[in-house]
Write a structure and sequence with these properties.
Helix content is 34%, strand content 10%. It is α/β, with parallel strands linked by helices. The chain has a single domain, classed as Uracil-DNA glycosylase-like domain (Uracil-DNA Glycosylase, subunit E, 3-Layer(aba) Sandwich), CATH 3.40.470. A 6-stranded mixed beta sheet has the order 1-3-2-4-6-5, with helices on both faces. A hairpin with a 2-residue loop joins strand 5 and strand 6. It holds the Pfam family UDG.
């Protein structure tokens, strides 16, 4: 079966143009999501200036401090605020906002775990925004997934929820602290597959200190879930020639999920 025009348009957005007779890789279903152009792009809206109160306002209640062991008992509606109040490692000292994640609620087909938040994510509190986020949305749509819309099927979250200073890699203690959050997200979302975007997410989830190129192209395991590794969208914006390799990784993810269904 050949790609339809909508699917070709999605792949073209990733920088991949297929010949007219290109065949669909084995195990890949047609995407049913709306075209990428229909995706709403989240925008950060500045809050209006606060009016002076007639009397001194009551002091705000201090944020409840949450330690890693507490995450395991939290419900889905409690977890985001607990992450915002988390002080399990030193990254909390310099964050502006913790980045919980975005996507499917209740259950997800794919859990997409990215490298740590960048400065823009830290400012907005949103996972993977800007051009890199728009490319990720197009990649997901080409694979029949989405993190937005009426019925999202994927959830996107960073490997650590707070931005490490100066863009450094997260330290082992920081990764350990955030794994308690990620583990609870897995329990609540019950995904069928984990897609790791970028070297830091890939190394943590695979437990291997190999280059990204060696981690790609095979299925790993983390918490009894299949893990497929691919490039981070920000890298693909700098190195568009590797988009074809990213598409191969998405096809591997689709094939892996298809195998689980049989």
């Amino acid at each position: 079966m050949s790609w339809d025009e909508r699917q070709r348009a999605m792949l073209a957005e990733m920088g991949l143009r297929l010949p007219a007779t290109a065949a669909r890789p084995a195990g890949v279903e047609e995407a049913t999501a709306e075209p990428a152009e229909a995706l709403p792009v989240a925008r950060t809206v500045a809050a209006p200036p606060a009016r002076a109160a007639a009397t001194d306002p009551a002091p705000a209640a201090p944020a409840r401090e949450v330690r890693p062991g507490a995450f395991a008992a939290l419900a889905a509606d409690e977890l985001p605020s607990a992450v915002a109040a988390c002080r399990a490692c030193g990254l909390c000292e310099q964050r502006r906002q913790a980045v919980f994640g975005e996507g499917a609620v209740g259950s997800a087909q794919w859990l997409v775990v990215t490298d740590p938040p960048d400065d823009a994510d830290d400012a907005s509190g949103q996972a993977l925004g800007g051009e890199a986020g728009r490319l990720l949305d197009r990649m997901l749509l080409a694979a029949g997934q989405s993190r937005r819309g009426e019925t999202p099927t994927a959830f996107v979250t960073p490997i650590v929820k707070c931005r490490p200073p100066r863009g450094r890699a997260p330290q082992p203690a920081e990764l350990d602290a955030c794994e308690a959050i990620l583990a609870r997200q897995v329990e609540l979302l019950q995904p069928r597959l984990v897609l790791a975007l970028g070297l830091q997410a890939a190394r943590r989830l695979t437990g291997l200190a190999e280059p990204l190129g060696k981690l790609r192209g095979r299925v790993h395991r983390w918490r009894d879930l299949p893990v497929v590794v691919t490039y981070h969208p920000a890298y693909l914006l700098r190195s568009p020639a590797d988009k074809a390799g990213a598409w191969d990784d998405l096809c591997l993810a689709l094939k892996t999920v298809k195998t689980l269904e049989t």
